[in-house]
Amino acid sequence: FGTLDSSIEAGDVVTYTGEAVLSSVSGVGTSKAWIKKSSGSYDHTLLGVISTQPNQVYGEGVFTFEENPRPVTLAGRTLAKVNLDNGPIKTGDRFTSSNVPGVAMKADKAGMTIGIALQSLDSVGSGSYEKIIVAINSGYWAPPVPLTDLTSSQQAGSGQTASSSTEALSSGWMFDLDILFSSIIRKFGEA
């Protein structure tokens, strides 16, 4: 990927920008695409993280030195810059772009995310960031809905009592199909 920003470095969270173009290198068809540092929280154009040590680089020779080629991790493990804008990060937390250019934060609401934290982090210097190991897995993510929220809002139309919902929860049931189907039918009836 090329960029107009020569300050982009390993660990930066990046987004795609502009239009990709077809090109040719030594008679072989390829393409050029462009990146920039992420610059807002939950950026919908998240792409990846600049690799610290790429195992495989695709597109070598596609960009000129002046086009600032950068290896973007699209899958796999790498170090990413993170801050604690949404609180401490635990292994397994999803992360997204923050308001700090090129720096990620823990995702705490639905939106685009770039991957999963493979390390925990609970302190950084004020206004600063640290690099942690992450697994790149970009896409839209929504936090899980607590099961108690589902059963309390759906049991009214299902005929299920609070005590039977509680019993289902305590016995390890993830959800009751009757509650789910009743909720779907009720929604269609409201439409």
Task: Give a structural overview.
With about 190 residues, the chain is an alpha+beta fold. The protein is built from 3 helices and 10 strands; from the N terminus they run E-E-E-E-E-E-E-E-E-E-H-H-H. The protein has a 5-stranded mixed beta sheet, with no helix packed on it. Strands 6-10-9-7-8 form a 5-stranded antiparallel beta sheet, with no helix packed on it. Strand 7 and strand 8 form a beta hairpin. The radius of gyration is 22 Å and the shape is globular. The model is unreliable at about 160-165 and about 170-175 (pLDDT under 50).
Write the SSE topology.
Elements: E1 2-3, E2 13-25, E3 28-37, E4 46-50, E5 72-73, E6 76-82, E7 94-97, E8 104-106, E9 111-117, E10 130-141, H1 147-158, H2 162-170, H3 177-190
Parallel strand pairs: 1-3
Antiparallel strand pairs: 2-3, 2-4, 4-5, 6-10, 7-8, 7-9, 9-10
Helix pairs in contact: 1-3
Summed up, what is this model?
This protein has 191 residues and is an alpha+beta fold.
* Count of individual helical segments: 3
Global structural class = alpha+beta
Largest sheet: 5 strands, mixed
Topology, number of strands:
10
End-to-end Cα distance, whole Å, is: 46 Å
Strand order of the largest sheet: 1-3-2-4-5
Shape: globular
- Order of helix and strand elements from N to C terminus: EEEEEEEEEEHHH
| Mean pLDDT metric | 83
Keyword list:
5-stranded mixed beta sheet; single chain; 3 helices; 18% helix; 191 residues; alpha+beta; 5-stranded antiparallel beta sheet
